[in-house]
Design goal:
The chain has 389 residues and is α/β, with parallel strands linked by helices. It has one domain: Alpha-Beta Barrel (TIM Barrel). It is built from 16 helices and 14 strands. The strands form 4 sheets. Strands 4-13-12-9-8-7-6-5 form an 8-stranded parallel sheet. The protein is globular. The termini are far apart. The relative contact order is 0.16. The N terminus is likely disordered. Bound molecules: flavin mononucleotide. The site of flavin mononucleotide has 26 residues, from helix 3, strand 7 and helix 14.
Amino acid sequence: MSDPKVASDPKLASDPKLDKTMSATFASQRRKDDHIDLCHRGDVTLEGDRGLWSDLSLVHNAMPELHMSSMSLKTSLWGQTEIDAPLMLTGMTGGTEKATLVNRGLSQVCAHLNIPFGLGSQRIMTKDPSLVDSFKVRQYAPNVVLLSNIGVNQLREMGPEAAQRLCDEVESDALAIHLNPAMEFIQPGDEADRDFRGGYEAIRLAVKMIDRPVIVKECGCGLSPKVISRLIDQGVQFVDVSGVGGTSWVKLEALRATQDGEHSREARLGMLLADWGIPTAAAVMLASSLPVKVIASGGITNALEATKALALGADIVGMARPALQTFLDAFERHGEDHAIESTIEFLDELIYGMRSITALHGVTSHKQLRHLPRVIGPRLLAWRSIEHS
Ligand SMILES: Cc1cc2nc3c(=O)[nH]c(=O)nc-3n(C[C@H](O)[C@H](O)[C@H](O)COP(=O)(O)O)c2cc1C
């Protein structure tokens, strides 16, 4: 997508300082659109059950003894914020025309279902403040529970006051701070961060100074109990484990680093590490024993996986790519209104499944699932060995 400002204003384009900012913004925009396109159509997941969901069996109750009218999946995240189902769309995008369409559409989907919606990284706003509009969804979804998003490295560089301003500008309810060190090694040198120091301190300051809840999330490689424990020491009360099993950002960056079939060293490392990280089911199981609210994401594609995540102790379940694909497929067929309706139907069916599977345990709330017996297979059980490490 071309940058209209560079194209239309020759004076701006001839200032070398502005030129540099413009080209940095343009490169970021291209990256954002690449991410959307690859997540829509690219081969960015892994074969097989990488999330380890098949290693967990739930126990059927043939006599549920309940009426579905007494069933409630309502839950609260923080304070008085009540949502209608333990489900959210996690952060994806912003900063381009296509991203604007996605944020506008998916925020309305979430508002309709009364579930939270995550914006993608707002770093691009710091490069070009005019791109804020691509993140501003309040006019379309005034009451949606909205999450801002920034990477831990950018947070460290900008400090908590600037992060607070990013939240204020889009009127978000909470800030998600993303961690993605594995992906950084696969990105080309000029795009990637190589300094991973000072993250805990940056998060400690953010929790202390930002006037809304702070969630720390991975992006598909999982959070270990050791990292979560240290985050809790910084005051963090919410984590999104985002484990292995869904979108592999390492694989995605490896695909981007492969030009005309030529594999760079980053691309080769990306293919080697495509399934690097902690399977989502294991990450949820381990996180749930810690004093923190847990969002289970990374490869949640259906109601059974979602309900298994809740049974393992997740407070809510998160999804990114499957909702994006549903939205974009429908958009290409019949436009924006159809895309919104189709994505609502897709998520509604997911919630219907979660309600039904919860009922098949003989309980009226997903919150009771975690206290019921379940059968854990050897691959998932093996992860218990790092529980207190
Ligand atoms: C197109 C796309 C863009 C994403 N961009 C971001 C981002 O900017 N910030 C972030 O925290 N996570 C980002 N993610 C990661 C997701 O929030 C999620 O953690 C990850 O994709 C795993 O979930 P999934 O398997 O349901 O896709 C993005 C995901 C997608 C599909």
